[in-house]
Write a structure and sequence with these properties.
Shape: globular
Radius of gyration: 22 Å
Order of helices and strands: EHEEHEHEHEHEHHEEEEEEEHH
């Protein structure tokens, strides 16, 4: 029996992971299709860890601890799946402490790391402690993504030529109060980037941009929006744009083919699990279907932890490397635009 431990009770841990665990732990007389992948009998309630005194307020059925040391006294590391829901900037330090305490099954929120140095540290840690690290990339598990893969594979609309992904939402309060995500590249972009690499293959960065948040309050830099363009080895060109001060929410991806297009709309939040797919071309159509991708992903992850080999991290490392390239590109552009602070002498040396 595998025991869940949720580290971090922010938006991901409290708002997404704990509800998914509750759905997966439904008893046999629960909702149709409900399963219990990590228990053959009713299991102990999930344990959570968050140092903030208010983090567990209002939670029921969850034992909340203030430190990993306290959490480790309540669970057996060898049989625990740790949901690492801390921000990217804290990722390497948290994984190091978990590994040192004997936890080896780690379900890590995206992105795996916030930069190349942190990624190298995590890769070394994984090798040293033989960690099974699985990154929460549930868009890859989504039914919508599966249908897009089928369109690419079957070729009814011709060859894939381009992809455009749009990820817009208003994120003012969290950007102003939470320092865990260094830039807009670390918030929504990793979801779509993984899908683009899955659909079109390996790629190189061809351009990137970021901007600050547009609001009246003083805000951290580079959290207003971000975008990047890629050239895939397959010849496909793709683009991601993410606005975090948008007045509307949108999570869409459009595949451009020789003879048509397909636009998919991922569910916008945990409040509705329906996706949509609009196809133009030889066989146009508009499909609407259930797509609870995170629940499907966690279910599969637990089965993998119980029965399968260690997960392949390379696709997630590729995402981190491309995000790092995009940030480096933007920093270089910022430096090039910055005025030279040193005074210049005129032609006569005065």
């Amino acid at each position: 029996m595998l025991q869940p431990l949720v580290v971090g009770l922010g938006r991901s841990g409290r708002g997404l992971h704990l509800p998914v665990l509750a759905r997966l732990a439904a008893p046999p007389d629960g909702p149709p299709g409900a399963v219990r992948p990590y228990a053959t009998r009713p299991f102990a309630a999930p344990v959570a860890c968050d140092p903030r005194p208010e983090a567990g307020r209002g939670l029921t059925g969850v034992r909340v601890t203030r430190s990993l040391a306290e959490a480790a006294r309540l669970v057996c590391p060898e049989s625990t799946v740790v949901h690492v829901c801390t921000p990217p900037a804290q990722r390497a330090a948290v994984l190091t402490e978990l590994a040192e305490r004997g936890f080896t099954r780690l379900l890590v929120e995206k992105p795996l790391a916030s930069g190349r140095a942190e990624l190298a540290r995590i890769v070394r840690l994984r090798r040293l402690h033989r960690l099974d690290v699985r990154v929460v990339a549930h868009w890859l598990e989504a039914e919508l993504t599966a249908r897009l893969r089928a369109l690419v594979r079957e070729g009814e609309l011709g060859r894939l030529t381009g992809i455009t992904a749009l990820q817009h939402k208003p994120r003012f309060l969290r950007s102003l109060t939470d320092t865990g995500h260094p830039t807009a590249f670390d918030v929504e972009v990793p979801h779509a980037l993984g899908v683009l690499l899955d659909l079109a293959g390996p790629a190189e960065l061809t351009g990137a941009h970021w901007r600050d948040l547009r609001c009246e309050e003083p805000a951290p830099a580079h959290l207003g929006g971000a975008g990047l363009t890629l050239l895939h080895r397959s010849g496909v060109r793709s683009r991601i744009a993410s606005d975090l001060d948008s007045p509307v929410r949108q999570r869409s991806i459009t595949l451009h083919f020789e003879h048509g297009s397909a636009t998919g709309h991922y569910p916008l939040s945990e409040h509705d699990d329906h996706a949509q797919l609009v196809i133009s071309g030889a066989r146009p159509g508009h499909q609407v279907f259930r797509d609870d991708a995170l629940t499907a992903f966690v279910r599969r992850a637990y089965r993998g932890f119980a029965d399968g080999p260690r997960a392949d991290l390379e696709p997630h490392c590729a995402v981190v490397r491309l995000l790092s390239d995009a940030k480096d590109h933007c920093r270089a552009a910022d430096r090039a635009r910055a005025p030279d602070p040193t005074p210049h002498e005129d032609a006569h040396g005065s």
